[in-house]
Each structure stands twice: as C-alpha cells, then as structure tokens.
Amino acid sequence: MLVSLRWLKEFCEFPNENQLIDDLNRIGFEVESVENKGAGLSNIVIGHILTFSPHPDADRLRIAQIDIGQEAPIQIVTAAENVNQGDKIPVSLPGATLASGLKIKKSKLRGVTSNGMMCSAVECGLTDTSPGVWVLPENAPIGNDFIEYAELIDTVIDVCILPNRGDAMSLIGLAREVNALYSVQQTSSLNTFLEKPTSNTSLTCNIETKSCSYYRAQKISGLKNMQSPIAWQTRLYYTGQRPISWLIDITNIVMLETGQPLHAFDASGVNTINVVSGTNGQNITLLNEKAYVLNSSMPLININGTPAAIAGVMGAQSHSVTSETTEIILESAIFEAAIIRKTSKQLGLRSESSSRFEKGVDVSGMKNAIARVVQLLQVSQPNISLESPVDAGELSVKSIHIPFDLNQMNHFLGTDFSLNDVVNRLKPLGFNVSGTEIEVPSWRVDDCCEWPDIAEEMCRFSGIDGIKSNPIETIVKVQHNPMWLLRKQLNQQAITLGLTEVIPFPLTETDINPNQPKVLNPITPELTTLRSNGIQSLIQTAGLNSSRHPMPCRIFNCGPIWDDALNESWQFSALIQGSNHYQPYLKSDHDPVDFYDVKGLFEQLMSQSDLSFEYKVGGSVWFHPGQSATILVNNQMVGSIGVIHPNMKTKYRLPETAIIEFNLNFFLDITTSSTYDLVSKYPATFRDTTYIMDSSVLVGDVLTILNSEKPDLCTNISLCGYFNKDQSSEVNVSFRMTYQDQTNSLEMDTVNDIHKKFSDSVIKKLPCRFP
After folding, report:
1. Strand locations in 196-295 (E)
2. If 0-12 CB within 10 Å is exposed, 13-18 middle and 19+ buried, where does residue 747 land?
C-alpha cells in the first residue's frame, strides 16, 4: 500500500520519517520502498494563459502569452492541444528543474523565443503518462509557487500489509499503529457526525445473495461534478490512484483514509438496487473499458434490473458518474472476503476495493466513512441535500472477549510485563483490558482470537531484542515425521553413493497415465498435470542435460506422486546416464551403465534395512522388457529397476540410461531394526555347490529358494561361478555357502550333512541337477 507521509501526518504524530520507516519494519509493516517526491523540483509557478497566436513557421506550434503575476506576461511556445485561452497551468521558468532532472532554459523554437514550458503531471513527477498540460482549477492563485500549492514535496512509502491485517489498509488504521508505537493520542481530521437527511427517499434495496451481509445506499443531490482540488489530486497520484473528477475522487480519498470501499452511481432514473448473483455467461463492461464474463458465484449490483457493478470489485460503465452528473447514489456495503477474493481471481481483476474487502473491512467504520464523504462535499458545495438512506441486511459489530492470564503470557514470552504495561500498550490499539479479560476491537476480531495473539502484540511493540535469553529448563524430544526421517536417510545414502538430488516440479505437461488429474490454475501452460511417477521428471532433466553436453549424470529425487484418484504417496526415483564410472583418463573404464549397476545401487541404498528383496523379470512402461526387474518384498511389488526402454531412449535422445523407482510409503508400514552378530572366535568353513540347469531358469529363483531354506549355521550365500558351453542350452551355476557357529567349532560330518540337505532343496523345487 502506497502511503503519503504528508497525508499520514494529519492522523498521527511521529518523530521523523527515517525513524518511522525503521519502526514500521520492526512492528511487522515492511516498508518495501521509499520515494522522495518533488525533491528535485524548482522554479515552477502558476500561470494564466492570456492569449494564443499561431506560430509563423510551424502549423503545430502556438505562441502563448502567460500571466505569472509579474508586471509583464511571458511568452511560451507550445505544441499542447488540450489548453485554451483563460486556462491556468503550471509553468516552469528558465532555471527550473523538472522531475526527470531536465533543466529549463530560455530557447527559440523555429525562430520564436520561448521563456519556459507548460508542465503536465509527468514533468511534475506525479505519473508516467499524461493526456497533456495539467489544467488547474479556476481559483488557482496566479504567480504562486506551484510546488507548494500542489503539495508536491512529499515522502511516499510502499508498506506491505499482511493478509490478516486488513485494519491497516487505511491511513486511520496505520496511524493507529503509529500512535501506539510512539504512545501519543489518536488525532484525526475526519467528521464522525452523520448529517440528518433533508428528505425521504423513493429508492428500494434488496439483498438476494449470501455474499453480502449489509448494503446501504443514499441519494445526494445538488451537486456539481468539478475538478478536484490540486492538493487532493497530488495525494491520489502519489498513492497510486488516477484523479478523474471530484465526485469520483472523493470515494477514493475516503477509502484511502478509512479503509471502507465506496462507490458512486449516477442517480438519474434509479429506482431499485439489488445485490444478486451473476448469471453464467453474462457479460458486463466495467469502468476500465474491458468486458468480462460472469458466472453464478460472482456477486453483482443490479440497478433497475441491469448490471451496474461487480460487487466489491469495480463499477460498470452504465450508471457511471459523468461531468453532467448532479446527483449520486452513494453505495457502501460489507461483502464476504472469500467470495470477493475468488471473484477477483477468476476475473483476473484486482482493484483497490477488492484488495480491502479480501482482507476484511471494519463494520464499525462505515458510518465514519459516509460522514467523511458528506464533509468533503460540503466544503465545496454547502447546499447539497441528503435523502434518507435505504439499507438491507444487518450491520452487526462483532465483539470478542479473550480470557487473559498475565503470568501465563509472561512465562510464554520470557518477560516480566505488569498489567499496567499491557494496558498502556494495548489501549492505543483499541483493546479494552481488565484484570482477567481483554475485549478485542471490531477491526481486529478476525486477527486476535486467543491469548497468544495478545502476547504477539506485546512482543511486536516491545521488540524481540528486549526479551532476555533464558536457558531451556527441559529438553523435549522432537517427534519427527516418519516419512521425513525415511526421506532424509535415503537422501544421505544416495548422495554418499555419488548421486545428485534434483527437485523438479510435481507437475508435467502430459503424464504417462492419460487419466491423471489436472490443476485448475497451473503456474505455467506447460505444467498442468499432477505427475503419477518421478521417473518422467528425471528423464526430462536427463534429456535436457544430454542435449547440452555429453557428460553423464547420476541424479535422484524423493518426491510426491498422485494416482488418478488424487491419492498422494512418495516415490524414490534415480537415473544413471552414460558410463558406469566416468573417469575420462582411464580408457578401460568407459563401459555403459547396465542392469547390474542399478541393481547394486539399489541394494546399497537399502543396505541399512534388514528386508529380503526378490526380483522378477519385467518392469513398468519405462523399462526395457529384457533388462529390467520388479522388486518384491514378501511377494508385494514395491518398485522396479533396469535399463530404460528403447522407445524412451530414442524419444528423449539419451545415451545408455538405467533407472530405479520404488514406493516409500511401503517401507513406512514395515518395522525394521538392524542387528549385528558378534564376530565368531571359531573358524568358518565353506562348501561349493554347482547346479546344471536350463538357461531359461533364473539364477534369482535359485537364490530365492536358498535364502528361504537357509539353515541357522549358514551365514552367507554367494554366486561364485557361471559357465555356459557353446551351442548348449544348459548352464552351470555355482554357489558358495559359508558355515560358522558362535559357540563351537563345526565338525566336518555335521557341516556335510547340513549342506547336503540344504543344496538338495533346490533340486526338489526347480528343474535342475547336480553334475
């Protein structure tokens, strides 16, 4: 929110601007920028155009004689088309400095002397664009310093207002914080007395939607829509508004001062006003001259049955105030914050009004805002007449009483505040403090609901640096989320194994599953679909990597995935691209990555688990059908490993690539504990067994049987030999079994007997034989 400090001074007192900016940051209102407006301006006066004459040597130039309060008028050559004889304008004289830093000098244009320049709002530093020379009101004093007259010297700060602090979206609200900060009494130039109506009204008003809790309309007559006073125009420019006319500008001025959005309709022919819901497909053209399509969730203001405004956002061109307007309908209302926020987002249209309704408008401040409008109108037009207002709904002021325990708060903050400290700090903010209870003002009821909110207010103003450091008396064990612990463990293990973590978006342009749900409001047109797997993201990253350079990559990601029913789970995905060991100085170490590389990588990742993994040929659609395997635990599929499918390799132009994917949620359901056997002081003995089998029998099936039948004295089983005779369908597969006891030395006969029964278990279950 842009704040003019010159304007803010009318509502509060502060020591100096730099101190104020530092203190606003300290109490939670971040000042994002500071601009010293008008600081470089000089030598600009108010002039009165006496005559215009054509330039003798240029069709687009005119020669003006301008009275600047001196004995003789000055001559200025101009190309401006929006000024006429009799207008009053700002004039920069020779030696003047403009907002852009331009120095004005006496010059000649096509042979005619020009003693200065007519200024627009751009040259005065108020805006970036302007329709032409700034035409001043008729009562502007000729010859006076325009910089002082227009109040151009000002400091404008951009204050970040948090979503829960809608009460500070006004000069009154921000001034309340400043006065509390410096312990001074609230000052205000606003009129809080509502003028009595001078006549009855024929207007009718109804609310036909839940988006509006209260609506008020009042007809004001006897008006003349003129140009706003220059000082008010300056204030509007500096706070991001565009001055239009006095009747329109007043509503913006009061909104900035009080935080209550207001709107003025042309009252000509108005009989009924209804707050309704829009119709799907309904079109409306707003004051920004753009057309919008409505839906049934958007609140609408209908006048005489026709759309006159999108409630809480912006008015329509129909019934808009014009230069001919002599009577207006002053609208004020309370709309539901969530509905206005949704409407504004759906339309892609955010206004000053909608930004305030979104954060919440103080119900108790509405009468004050209406009184301020009437006050400003009466300054220039004292003979206005007010009809009695018509309203609908209920204007109820919320009230919250919070139980308060001073000792509890002091223990919570580590402070020693007294009750007087709490009263002195909270009273300027509008809180009413008793011994055991605090009454929250209406403008903070949505923000302060519990006693920790009161503690935050005390801490906010006293400063965290004012709280003493106290050691923690007891150490509470932190209960981490099990999934977080598992992800942390896998991340550390993967990084140790030489993989680099990547964090891609959990959204894709298209997913391998055509039924994947799409997000309604994607961050980019390319990222629209929730991903069903993590491999696709890694493949896209690797494809981008390989298109830039031939260097291999070893990457992984632990991230969320979703099924087509929007059920979320976590998946670990890894990708190895290129050679299995990238050592360019060793020519013999450039073998491409294969199935066994990722199988070993997976087993190393899971080395801290005591689970037994089985492998079954085949994987998901990403995998090569003959060089991949499904990972099984207790006959349940948990993931896949293997080489990427040739089609995917071609599509993404990848070199040799192997991938891993497995579901993390499965491991959360299994309680594992790592146990370690003592090193036996008794010797181990080994036995080798060779099986002759058809090449179609999987070695993994043999290992599965051996592991399931393994006797207690067998401490290890390893593959130690594989022989395939040319032109033969049979292979010889040898395994080495290690036997060892923790309590005794093993007898040879005992080992032989155990080993024979053990090795025979494979012969009984698979089509194989001994040599």
Report:
1. 204-207, 212-221, 262-266, 272-277, 283-285, 291-293
2. exposed
Cβ neighbours of residue 124 under 8 Å, at least 6 residues apart?
38, 41, 44, 90, 98, 99, 134, 146, 150, 152
Q: Where are the beta strands (DSSP E) in 593-694?
A: 614-617, 623-633, 636-644, 657-663, 685-694
Q: Which residues of the chain have pLDDT under 50?
A: none
Residues whose CB is less than 8 angstroms from the CB of residue 364 and which lie 6 or more positions away in sequence, other chains included:
397, 442, 443
CA distance 182 to 358: 29
CA distance 20 to 175: 11
Beta bridge partners, 299, equal 277
Any idea what the Cα angle at residue 501 is, between residues 498 and 502, rounded to 5°? 140
Name the residue among 584, 537, 583 with its Cα closest to residue 558: 537
pTM, two decimal places? 0.67
What confidence score (pLDDT) does residue 665 get?
A: 87
Query: How many Å apart are CA 405 and CA 427, to the nearest integer?
Result: 17
β-bridge partners, 103? 97
Res 25: pLDDT = 92
**pLDDT tens-digit profile of 190-248?**
656 777 888 898 899 999 999 999 999 999 999 988 999 999 999 999 999 999 999 99
Residue by residue, DSSP assigns 484-508 as HHHHHHHHHHHHHTT-EE----SEE
Alpha-carbon distance of 265 to 271, in angstroms, equals 12
Q: Is 538 exposed, middle or buried (0-12, 13-18, 19+ CB in 10 A)?
A: buried
218 contacts 251 by C-beta, under 8 angstroms: no
Closest CA to 55 of 43, 67, 65, 63: 63
For residue 402, what are the contacts with CB-CB under 8 A and spacing of at least 6?
437, 438, 440, 448, 449, 450, 451, 453, 454
Report which of 656, 654, 622 is spatially closest to residue 641, judged by C-alpha positions: 622
Q: Report yes or no: 152 and 35 within 8 Å, Cβ to Cβ.
A: no
| pLDDT at residue 543, as a whole number | 87
Taking alpha carbons only, the member of 136, 116, 131 closest to residue 82 is: 131
Task: Quote the pLDDT of residue 450.
Answer: 92
**Cα–Cα distances in angstroms (integers) from residue 563 to residues 348, 556, 641, in the given order:** 31, 21, 20
Q: Give the pLDDT score at 398.
A: 82
Q: Determine the 3-state secondary structure of 375 from DSSP.
A: helix
